[in-house]
Amino acid sequence: MDIVIPNLLWLIFILKIILAIFCGVIIGIERESMGKPAGIKTHSLICLGACLFTHFSLMATTGDPTRIAAQVVSGIGFIGAGTILQSKQRIEGLTSAALVFVNASIGMTIGGGYFLYGIIATIALLLLFQFIRSNKFQTKLRSYRIFIRCNHYRDIERTIQFIQRLQCKITNKKIDKLPHEFEVSITYLTTPLANHRILSQLHQLPSVTNYSQT
After folding, report:
1. Strands (E), 34-106
2. Do 41 and 10 sit in the same domain of this protein?
3. Which of the listed residues 103, 133, 163 is the one where a domain comes to its end?
4. Can you point out the beta strands (E) in 108-168?
5. What span, in angstroms and rounded, lies between the C-alpha atoms of 212 and 114?
6. Residues 80/95, Cβ–Cβ less than 8 Å
7. How far is the C-alpha of 126 from the C-alpha of 35, rounded, in Å?
8. DSSP letters spanning 96-131
9. How far is CA 13 from CA 60, 136, 137, in A?
10. Which domain holds residue 164?
11. Do the beta carbons of residue 150 and residue 205 sit within 8 Å?
12. What are phi and psi of 113, to 5 degrees?
């Protein structure tokens, strides 16, 4: 009996790690598909770290078992603050910062042993993103900036023409020659729904090697 209980605790710990990484990866895949800088690695590490801290906090035999988990919220606040930028009277990164906070809470839920709650929260988060993207009432024009890398200059020209055809107005563009490829910075006006469509279609273009949006 003394051997079975430690083995069971190890299995639960391994299950927590696997589930936390899985939820973080699923969220990261969704964000990377939209061209966000915080992707699979960032969200999987945040979810895993929150899970480990919560698990270690519950293992504490003296003092308040929630004291370590409580500090996760403060630490995540610093990470979230680092994702918020202000440029040209426009604040960017608020959604990414909020998502970091929610992702950490999912990791803490899993670390606390509430596996089903963590899975339900992850599914609800993905459904929320899907609903927002399909919301036809998002018609207000906003300014977006995207960085696109291509191997050849002609691919840059085709990509710019491709963006112009997708219901947006390009206000600024800058092309830089890198050691092994070209990078173009494009600022354009469009609706949030059209911007999601642009990012999803850019992901499928073979001429685009990499892209990110700020």
Report:
1. 85-87, 90-92
2. yes
3. 133
4. 142-150
5. 35
6. no
7. 16
8. HHHHHHHHHHHHHHHHTT-HHHHHHHHHHHHHHHHH
9. 15, 43, 44
10. 142-213
11. no
12. 95, 5
Q: What's the full length of the chain, in residues?
A: 214
pLDDT at 42 exceeding the cut of 50:
yes
Does residue 180 sit in the same domain as residue 113?
A: no
Q: Per-residue confidence at 88, pLDDT binned at 50, 70, 90? A: very low
Q: Which residues pair with 50 in a beta bridge?
A: none
Tokens encoding 47: 């979810």
- Average pLDDT in the 38-56 region? 88
Beta strands at 85-87 and 90-92: parallel, antiparallel or unpaired? antiparallel
Q: What are the structure tokens assigned to 126, written together?
A: 């993905």
Q: What angle do CA 144, 173, 198 make, to 5 degrees?
A: 45
CB 95, CB 144: distance < 8 Å: no
